[in-house]
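User: Hey, quick favor. My workstation is busy. Could you predict this chain's structure for me?
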Amino acid sequence: MSESVRESIVVTADVDTIMDVIADFDSYPDWQPDFKSVEVLSTDADGWATEVRFVLDAMIMTTTYTLAYSYTDNSMSWHLVEGAQVRTVDGNYTLDDLGDGQTRVTYTLEVDPTINVPGILKRKATKKIVDSALKGMKQRVEALV
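Assistant: No problem, here it is.
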């Protein structure tokens, strides 16, 4: 059974600046310490990554997986293409302009490892990934503006 976590954070930056940071996959290991490596496998005609391979050191395991990405003006979504030790890695970032240079970033992540892990540990690991990503993204974005 998969575990889903949804959390939000307010960032002092506009939607475009935040989107540029969350779509810069090559820099993920700089602001998301659980990512050990990231490789963009394909991009669309505008240069946005459409398929990305990750090596993630999560609390309960280290795994390699590939995600497919799609974008709108204020969101980025992904789903699992293939992965070792995971059945599901699906999620999205949604960016809501709050005005006055503030944006609410909501991160939803659903993860289902293939290994037998108690639900409480799966949820804790998923929550750790989401918390770390939101805090790291906020720090990186606000350092740029």
